[in-house]
């Protein structure tokens, strides 16, 4: 997975945090693809989660989805085949979502965590590699569930 490109999208409740994360990622040299929304006007999070993860799958890169709690965006993202979206609230969940779950989408709650913590989570998510081994077997079992 290419971790130098990030596709990001949010609803209105995640808009401010999305803008701050974009700024940070650009400063660190990432290519950022913004799938909206473009303002704090009310929109529906499934629309933006779906657009974001479709594009991240196409580009084989990390996706970031943001809504108020991160819950709706993560539920919607995980409906798309091939997506393993992890809702992270701290460094530990960010690290282990990559090491053990090979998460390819990070979900964040714009009304739950502050900007500094969100940026730490993003950096850890992007820099941590999947452990593989026994964890691959478990990921394969998750993939099989997509066929049901
Ligand atoms: C929008 O008010 C809010 O429901 C949404 O951002 C999200 O938190 C849903 O899970």
Describe the protein.
The protein is built from six helices and five strands. With 148 residues, the chain is α/β, with parallel strands linked by helices. The chain has one domain: 3-Layer(aba) Sandwich (Ribose 5-phosphate Isomerase B, Chain: A), CATH 3.40.1400.10. The protein has a five-stranded parallel β-sheet, sandwiched between helices. Strand 4, helix 4 (91-99) and strand 5 form a beta-alpha-beta unit. Helix 1 (15-27) packs across helix 5 (115-127) and helix 4 (91-99) packs parallel to helix 5. The longest helix has 15 residues, at 45-59. It is globular and about 40 Å long. The chain starts with a strand and ends with a helix. The model has no long low-confidence stretch (mean pLDDT 97). It binds D-ribose (RB5). D-ribose binds at residues 11, 13, 45, 67-69, 71-72.
């Amino acid at each position: 997975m290419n971790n130098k490109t990030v596709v990001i999208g949010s609803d209105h409740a995640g808009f401010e945090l999305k803008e701050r994360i974009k700024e940070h990622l650009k400063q660190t040299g990432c290519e950022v693809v913004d799938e909206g929304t473009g303002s704090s006007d009310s929109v529906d999070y499934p629309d933006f989660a779906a657009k974001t993860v479709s594009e991240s799958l196409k580009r084989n890169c990390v996706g970031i989805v943001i809504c108020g709690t991160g819950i709706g965006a993560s539920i919607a993202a995980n409906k798309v085949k091939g997506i393993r979206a992890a809702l992270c609230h701290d460094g530990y969940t960010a690290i282990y979502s990559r090491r053990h779950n090979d998460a390819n989408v990070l979900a964040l709650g714009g009304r739950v965590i502050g900007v500094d913590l969100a940026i730490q989570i993003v950096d850890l998510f992007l820099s941590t590699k999947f452990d593989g081994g026994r964890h691959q077997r478990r990921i394969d079992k998750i993939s099989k569930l997509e066929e049901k």
